[in-house]
Amino acid sequence: MGERVVVVDAFSAEPFRGNPAAVCLLTRERDADWMQAVARELNLPATAFVLPGTGEHGLRWFSPTIELALCGHGTLASAHVLWEDGVLPRDAPARFATAAGPLRAEWGDGWIELDFPAEPEQPAADAPAGLARALGVAPRYVGRNRLDYLVEVEGEEAVRGVQPDFGLLATVPTRGVIVTSRAARPGVDFVSRFFAPRAGIPEDMVTGSAHCALGPFWSARLGRDALVGEQVSPRGGRVRVRPRGGRVVLGGQAVTVLRGELT
């Protein structure tokens, strides 16, 4: 028997929307070169590798080109598979040991909630000149956290209209770039897009880890601690966001679209 692989569309209740992730349920330890080769072969925005453990599961995430420091949709997909395949009962939380620290997921009423570290941004006075030029926007604000740049623009149409120069954007020293604004529609508080050409992902479809920055950012500006964000990528998806001090609770749905085996 080989290693089971399940492809899940995360942050969506419908197939072929949200953000696809492969979940590889390992039967034994594997080295990073093997995991990177598998992620390159599958060529999805993230491949999550889950190693069973006592009390918590080991979890690592890889894009087609690099190991990821934090990945929301890969974690959501992993928890979804553990519950769907009966590895864990629905009423038991999924606990993961990761390079980003301990992470936890809970299922309820068709939604999965992730307890993630907050990644608040700070004003980036020294943002490279090429950043705005690569995005083709006039930023209202530029911030930076340990992972990404956060660029606020004038409105939702400006977010939707961004057409990056990916070659130039790949020269900006960062994991990725979040572009965001207040939403123009009821039921959604803010919109965003996420670009990460240096990580081998020109545009990510729905980025849980970006909402670890977006949650605190928009909570402070809108004066609310329960928000709904929509990532207006071609596939699109919504994320419920609740900042809690140094943590952020991210809520999303997931659907399995494919099952296979690495032979």
Salient structural properties:
Diaminopimelate Epimerase, Chain A, domain 1; 18 strands; 263 residues; alpha+beta; 6 helices
The residue ranges in which pLDDT falls below 50 over 5 or more consecutive positions are none
The best one-word shape is globular
How many separate domains? 2
Fourth CATH level, the homologous superfamily of the largest domain: Diaminopimelate Epimerase, Chain A, domain 1
CATH topology of the largest domain: Diaminopimelate Epimerase, Chain A, domain 1
What is the rounded Rg?
Answer: 18 Å
Give a verbal description of the structure.
This protein has an 18-stranded mixed sheet that branches. The chain contains six helices and 18 strands. The chain has two domains: 3-109 and 250-262, Diaminopimelate Epimerase, Chain A, domain 1, CATH 3.10.310; 122-245, Diaminopimelate Epimerase, Chain A, domain 1 (Roll), CATH 3.10.310. It starts with a strand and ends with a strand. The longest helix has 13 residues, at 72-84. It has helices at residues 32-42, 72-84, 129-135, 156-160, 166-169, 211-222; strands at residues 3-10, 19-25, 46-51, 57-62, 67-68, 94-98, 101-108, 111-117, 122-123, 141-144, 148-152, 176-182, 190-196, 201-204, 227-231, 237-244, 247-252, 254-262. The chain is 20% helix and 40% strand. The protein is globular. It is an alpha+beta fold and 263 residues long.
